[in-house]
Design brief:
The complex is a heterodimer. By secondary structure, chain A is mainly alpha-helical. Chain A is built from 11 helices and no strands. Chain A is globular. The chains are: A mainly alpha, B alpha+beta.
């Protein structure tokens, strides 16, 4: 991180190493470099859609394409947010946790767009059909469980909410992210037909990230 | 010999975009603008799917024309039909088949005829098709995934071809198989489905005048990604019943095993008639999206062919035998 910080600081301030901006970047590189980078990377999949749309890159069924794309990226970014803690465990880099909320909110952002596309564009507010989908089609039921979990996390993601319900309870509540992870992976597996590898890869990554937590828990419990 | 090259100037009626289609294109753009759904505008693929196209000659018109379907059921364009495909033998993505079937050489092609019939044996593609006049059939095509198109197929009535092999009296079903050749069909290298792909029809369904063996699209040989050189088209059933790249046709006395109903029996029945009242575990079948349109439309019983085929299923509980 420090190598990147130095390089970026140099580039941004172009030699004036003691300017106020340079001072600020040096004092808090995560806020000034790390987070803007997360924003740029997380918005790229949306920019990609906007780029494809006018060139016909969305194919014959653009609504389906958009739905898959948003869903894929919701799950991918959710897995990245779940990788923050294992990254800290493995590397010992404590500052990593400062990215977690932002990445998690981007996962929520894509999931909301995914569901909005389903409700507004795919079904055009046909609530009867949407309600039928939720109760009759298991992969949509499971997807809704994931959406509700992520929504409760997003709402309570502010400092105010941490104070209001207390850090301990807040931590407990935010274990719901694991429910969202399970729901996301199952939703993806169920929605593919036949035996397909791709959704299983996502489930495998999720299992790996969860086992990192389990191993750390056991280590602390019995060996620390 | 019906399958031969043709001069480029010999255009089929189906190649000329009817005015109604052109007008609907405008309508589509307008709707999109009104809805403010700029993202939905990308209807056309950026690449051309028109590689190595061979014209079919002597294709005769039938009563199943674009005009007979009416203004709300006009054919999708060639690029759409040939770039948005479910053909798991060439990959599970909709754009996979057009990319992965690019170098597939369908001809020469042999079909094995077997089972309960008087004339079993192997028959070449041309010998199978040659004795019959090619017909243009513009049909609605409804995928089980709740999207649909209108497609101008070229083919021969399946009944005419089957009769040549003298089906026995106890032949109650016809079973079909797709080519199994993982070298040429890369999707078959994975365990996505229980290869080779199998489908089947009851004899009366197979003999129905709507059922065809398709060899062409828009007056040309079938593109590889659409099931070259030979596929089934049963327009009142979900698309997966219309098996592609057929290498085996067998007459059987018992209900044949079919791939999707074997893979997920609760989801895909043997009959799989288009039926808006039988809900599927994955997709509500009450509505569908016509490719090229934004809003869903209601799905019709038997995909709109109720008048022609409902009698085949008289007295059957189609909710149980879905």
């Amino acid at each position: 991180m420090s190598v990147v910080t130095t390089a970026v600081t140099d580039a941004v301030v172009a030699g004036k190493k003691n300017s106020p901006l340079a001072q600020r970047i040096k004092r808090d590189p995560i806020a000034w470099i790390g987070k803007p980078l997360v924003w740029a990377v997380c918005l790229a999949p949306l920019a990609w859609l906007a780029w494809l749309a006018p060139t016909g890159g969305l194919g014959a069924n653009p609504i389906e394409f958009i739905n898959r794309h948003l869903g894929d990226w919701g799950l991918r970014i959710l897995l990245v947010s779940l990788a923050v803690t294992p990254l800290r465990i493995v590397t010992g880099w404590k500052q990593a946790v400062r990215f977690r909320r932002l990445i998690g909110l981007f996962a929520f952002f894509y999931v909301v767009l995914h569901v909005t596309n389903y409700v507004v564009v795919d079904h055009f507010f046909n609530w009867r059909e949407i309600f039928q989908d939720i109760i009759k089609r298991w992969y949509i039921t499971v997807g809704m469980v994931g959406l509700l979990s992520l929504t409760s996390l997003a709402i309570t993601s502010t400092k105010g909410w941490i104070k209001r319900i207390g850090g301990r309870n807040w931590n407990r509540l935010h274990k719901l992210v694991y429910v969202a992870g399970v729901a996301g992976c199952i939703h993806f597996i169920m929605m593919r037909k036949g035996f397909q590898i791709e959704p299983l890869v996502y489930a495998g990554i999720f299992a790996l990230l969860m086992s990192a937590r389990l191993i750390e828990f056991l280590r602390r419990r019995f060996f620390a | 010999m019906l399958i031969k090259f043709k001069k480029a100037s010999d255009a089929l009626g189906s190649e000329i975009t009817p005015k109604s289609v052109f007008d609907r294109r405008r309508e589509f753009l307008k709707t999109a603008a009104v809805a403010g759904a700029g993202l939905a505008l990308g209807g056309l693929p950026s690449f051309s799917a028109r590689a190595a196209r061979e014209k079919l000659s002597g294709v005769k018109k039938t009563k199943w024309t674009a005009e007979s379907l009416g203004p709300t059921d006009q054919p999708n364009d060639f690029d759409t039909i040939s770039s948005y495909n479910n053909f798991y033998e060439f990959g599970t993505g909709k754009k996979d088949p057009v990319a992965n079937a690019k170098d597939f050489k369908p001809l020469p092609w042999t079909v094995e005829i077997g089972g309960l019939c008087g004339k079993p044996g192997k028959i070449g593609f041309e010998d199978l098709i040659k004795p019959h006049a090619l017909e243009e059939r513009v049909y609605r095509f409804r995928c089980v995934e709740a999207w649909s198109m209108v497609v101008p197929w070229v083919g021969i009535p399946l009944a005419d071809a089957l009769k040549r092999f003298e089906p026995a009296a106890d032949a109650k079903y016809v079973a079909f198989e797709t080519l199994f050749d993982p070298k040429r069909m890369p999707g078959q290298r994975g365990p996505v489905l229980d290869w080779p792909y199998k489908e089947g029809l009851r004899m009366d369904e197979a003999m129905h005048p709507l059922t065809i063996l398709a060899v062409g699209l828009y007056g040309e040989m079938l593109p590889n990604q659409n099931g070259a050189p030979l596929r089934l088209i049963v327009p009142w059933k979900y698309g997966f019943k219309s098996i592609k790249s057929i290498v085996s046709i067998k007459f059987e006395s018992r209900l044949p095993k079919t791939t999707w109903s074997g893979s997920a029996p609760s989801e895909y029945g043997f009959y799989s008639n288009v039926n808006p009242t039988v809900s599927h575990p994955r997709w509500s079948q009450s509505s569908e999206r016509r490719i090229g349109e934004i809003f869903r439309r209601e799905t019709k019983m038997f995909n709109g062919y109720e008048e022609e085929v409902a009698s085949l299923y008289a007295g059957m509980d189609l909710k149980k035998l879905f």
